TrEMBL record:
Residues 22-66, 80-164 form the Nitroreductase domain. This is Nitroreductase. InterPro entries: Nitroreductase (IPR029479), Nitroreductase-like (IPR000415). Belongs to the nitroreductase family. Gene3D superfamilies: NADH Oxidase. Keywords: Oxidoreductase. GO terms for molecular function: oxidoreductase activity.
Length: 196
């Protein structure tokens, strides 16, 4: 088994950060035998529950699909081919859904932003607990909405793979290369528009 040296995946930061931020990365190689307990899933969702949101509306909803279930197959089948090539080994696929309108039909302008924060909280909790997550945007949202009976005002924004790190050698070649490529980010100065 060729596991990636996780220390080599730590973010080369320009300022000291907490460990889950430095250690978090998005692998594609998952252990196909690892499972998530009910308590583990509950902890991940609890972390998401405590994310901040505009007016404390909490416009996030989740579909948790464990590997080996019909729900997992439905989510996996809705992924684009590139993601299907590796996501089948994740212990769970979590569909991240934003409630984009309120009970009167008015748009919730910040819903997708708030959902993003909830997913970030979940990702950091997963990292803290020895798990890894990988966010995906390559999926058929209409297919997922139909498969899970999502009504109007519920929009699938992303899908998260969750699980234990697996064997990078099991990935197809282009993905294996990306799995071990050096991590990089734009310089902070390039991201900063203004500072007073």
């Amino acid at each position: 088994m060729t596991l990636v040296d996780t220390a080599s995946r730590h973010a080369p930061t320009d300022a000291p950060l907490i460990a889950p931020l430095v250690e978090r990365w998005s692998p594609r190689a998952y252990d196909p035998t690892a499972e998530l307990s009910d308590d583990t899933i509950r902890t991940l969702l609890e972390a998401a529950r405590w994310a901040p949101s505009a007016n404390n509306v909490q416009p996030w909803r989740f579909i948790v699909a464990r590997r080996g279930t019909p729900a997992f197959a439905a989510v996996h089948d809705a992924l684009m081919g590139f993601n299907q090539a590796w996501a089948d080994s994740a212990a769970a696929l979590i569909v991240n859904v934003a409630e984009t309108v309120d009970e009167t039909g008015a748009p919730r302008r910040w819903a997708t932003y708030d959902l993003g924060q909830a997913v970030a909280y979940m990702s950091l909790q997963a990292q803290h607990d020895g798990l890894h997550t990988h966010q995906m945007g390559g999926f058929d949202a209409d297919r997922l909405a139909e498969a899970f009976g999502l009504g109007a005002g519920l929009e699938v924004i992303s899908v998260s793979a969750v699980g234990k790190l697996g064997d990078a050698a099991a990935l197809p070649e282009p993905l294996r290369e990306r799995e071990v490529a050096p991590r990089s980010r734009k310089p902070l100065d390039e991201l900063l528009i203004a500072a007073a």
